[in-house]
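Retro notes, item 3 of 5
We never archived the inputs for the adenosine-3',5'-cyclic-monophosphate complex last cycle. Fixing that now. Sequence and ligand:
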Amino acid sequence: MAETLKNTPLFSSLTKDERACIEAVAVPRSYGRNTVVLSEGDETDSLYIIAAGRVKVSISDDQGKEVILSVLGPGDYFGEMALLDGEPRSASVVTKEPCRVFVISPDSFRKFLSSKPDLAFALLRGALRRLREANRKIEDLALKDVYGRIARLFTQLARSEGETLVITEGLTHQEIAQMIGASREMVSRVLKELVNGGYITSHRRVVTIHKKLPYSW
Ligand code: CMP
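Structure as it came back at the time:
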């Protein structure tokens, strides 16, 4: 657990002893694939830190149509919103693959927070980062077509692996559609055009980007 907390940006400003205090109150938990960890509207308020695996953060309407707000992985955390504002869970969190997490009770975390202003700043930075990402999404929904939204999403998710840019999130066309507010059919069509145009290749859900993606076609 020590390694996970050290690699979690939220806790990186803490000393080894302070991290040890968090380790002492964090409870390890494992989840299988496609398991609901939290549901939107739940009245729970623990904080979760991801040690292994990836989760999907989403909201849905009455008809069950779903928007994916984010995909989080090792070193990320979730559940801080209800913990801090006392409101119901703002979104659902479902595992995309088997996951290991550490759960911290609200009382333990609040106690810790009151004695560590650095931790409060780290939480605020995290919330502002998510707000900036949400602003970009609003901009894309209002001003960009599906090509532009896919280009933005892929550019955001891409990581350098040697000379190449790859996206290893393992996203399905349906998930991409739910992340950018488009239909699955439209996403499949745009991805096919990107492959035909030599912009990307895709193998076993790993996308490799070969040249700058067009913001419109
Ligand atoms: P909480 O509202 O307690 O439970 C759902 C969690 O999903 C929330 O805390 C955040 O940790 C996370 N979450 C909500 N909105 C976003 C977002 N836009 N991006 C990333 N994570 C989010």
